[in-house]
Amino acid sequence: MAGAAPRRAGALAALTEEIVDCRACPRLVEWRERVAREKRAAFRDEPYWGRPVPGFGDPSARLLVAGLAPAAHGGNRTGRIFTGDRSGDWLFGALHRNGYANQPTSVRADDGLRLRDAYVAAAVRCAPPANKPTPAERDRCLPYLVRELELLDRVRVIVVLGQFAYDATARVLAACGSPLPSPRPRFGHGVEAESERAIVLCCYHPSQQNTFTGKLTESMLDAVFERARVLSSS
């Protein structure tokens, strides 16, 4: 329908405004704002976002990429998830190689990156201490992902980056009335789990711990998005 995309875009923009104003988790609010004040030496002359980080991408996407949370000096600095950190270098490089992004890198929210047929979000929208949200913080934040998925009504595949995102996405799909099978397939790179709403495709997180050790390689990451393209087109 001709008017569907603008309606999705408008609704997602309204949800974005709501997300960035959220102060529901005192521990996360204190941490994200302290990081933004103290900064990392390499970024001492840059302004930090220091607020919740919304999802972004193509409102008509068939692919949703779900991560854990913004990095303290990545998304918490730039205001865009996976932008300005090493994990994002790997993610956006793979999205570009597989036709989902117009450029292979993203260093700032205004650097011209555009996603095609893909939308990127996180289970938790604030940078957490030690990159570890509590279960209560996760559960307070998940309704945002539920609402995003409801608005992204063309999504057919969800690539989850890591175990935390897999568990969170399972909760989101259950809340949407489309749970994953029980027992749920165990997380592993390349594992697929199907619900009525979408197919979940598991991927190791492109963290430095995984990429530096070779647990996740570029070819492994590319294979996930190649598979996502096939599944979302069928």
Helix content: 40-55%
Q: CATH superfamily assignment?
A: Uracil-DNA glycosylase-like domain
How many whole angstroms does the radius of gyration measure? Answer: 17 Å
How many strands, what sense, and barrel or not for the largest sheet? 6 strands, mixed
Order of SSEs: HHEEHHEHEHEEHH
The helix-and-strand class reads alpha/beta
Give the domain tally: 1
Distance between the termini: 20 Å
Strand numbers in spatial order across the main sheet:
1-3-2-4-6-5
CATH topology: Uracil-DNA Glycosylase, subunit E
Structure explained in plain terms:
It is a single chain. The protein is α/β, with parallel strands linked by helices. It is 42% helix and 11% strand. The protein has eight helices and six strands. Strands 1-3-2-4-6-5 form a six-stranded mixed β-sheet, sandwiched between helices.
Helices and strands in order:
Blueprint: H1 4-20, H2 26-38, E1 56-57, E2 63-67, H3 75-78, H4 86-97, E3 118-122, H5 135-151, E4 157-161, H6 163-175, E5 192-194, E6 199-203, H7 208-213, H8 218-233
Parallel strand pairs: 2-3, 2-4, 4-6
Antiparallel strand pairs: 1-3, 5-6
Helix pairs in contact: 1-5, 4-8, 5-6
Short description, anyone?
With 234 residues, the chain is an alpha/beta fold. The protein is 42% helix and 11% strand. The chain has a single domain (4-233), classed as 3-Layer(aba) Sandwich (Uracil-DNA Glycosylase, subunit E), CATH 3.40.470.
